[in-house]
Give the backbone structure.
Amino acid sequence: MGKLLNSYAMPHPPIIVPWIGKGEEGKVQSTIDACKKVSLEIKSSKPDTIIFITPHGPLFRDAIAVSDEKRIDGSFKDFGAPGIRFAKEINTELTKRVINEANKKGITTASINKKTSELYNIEFTLDHGAMVPMYFIDENYRDYKIMHITYGLLSKSQLYEFGMIIKKCIEEMDINAVIISSGDMSHKLSDDGPYSYSPYGEVYDSSLVEAIRNKNILGIFNLDENVVKNAGECGLRSLYILLGALDGANYNSEVLSYEGPFGVGYGVFKFGVESGEGEKLFNKIKAGEQEKLQNRRKNEDVYITLARESLETYIRKGKYINIPDYATEEMLKEKHGVFVSLKKFGELRGCIGTINPCRENVAKEIIFNAVEAGVNDPRFYAVNGSELDDLEYSVDILMPPEKAEFEDLDPKEYGVIVKSGYRTGLLLPDLEGVDTKEEQVKIALKKAGISKNEKFTIERFKVIRHR
């Protein structure tokens, strides 16, 4: 019978590789020392397979990507060190078995090989999320095959269950395996980092470190969503899969190191597997998701309810709903342009709207635009039924636009419309990451296909936003 051995969460900043850091790596010596400790422990346990879960391979909204060829290679050429190369044999038997078992459970996977990589227009290569931990492991131990996984933007319970599937396959195939969950923590610890400082960064990092130190697994899955969203992290979904693989196992969690000198949090965590059985948490995690869904729907207003039920009815029954009895007098009598936006796990999933009213009232405007946002936004494939419970909606009711000059704009208060001939670009107000009027106009021009050197007119408008 196979066994999941001690497993680890490791960061992946290329700067900790000496050939790339060129002296700067000394500022993260605690992280380097912890990675070297992991390497020696892996050498001692001698796994025949190491499973790398990374954020930086092919990322899909609806599927977990799994590399499925006999071999895969990569290098640090993008980081100025092309001479540091990796060539790894993939455990194809384990890979195919995990893919098959996941599909049986309704967890979609994308099998990435040389052929499908061309289809998806991506490179078939190892990414730095896998190669940085691999660099340290290979210093002491190289006698292993790999499984290379890029998490997808799936629900927490699906990612956790995928980890459970990995464990089941390991045991059934008589494999001794280590899992490496690759990911950095907050990227917003200071203005020196890749993003501007956010107080949420420190809150996120300290909360996650404390939860791991105390083996508070449900606490990890119940981290405040607003904190997670604004922390700028990239490793939490990798960790969900690793923790799923530990479901029902007896293990201890240990913080080997944590620091953030470059404005990014780097944590090295050990999950030491011991004999005996542990707690099974999948049902509690699933129940927690359902409770959040019910609370969200209980607190939504009628505008959001109408948008949600419009899309759900269309996806499930293939038809538009009639205006429901709960529609307010305001929704039935007023006419406005309406934008409906969909998000899935904090990421945009669709947004379609009308600048001016196209139908007899706001209610019908919402009904049609909710369906358009879910089915016909050209940036995304159509929403499918399995995604409906994961969607969050916002409805913007547009007030009549007014002519404006550049200095009249305020991206937090006003949306903007730019026009040049038949080309029109619109950007809603108060959007995450759009903090200046320069950014706002630049994005609106790009959406319209208007060069900044062309003549164009500006209008501004307010919205009544329902979330």
In short: The CA atoms of residues 180 and 367 lie 45 Å apart.
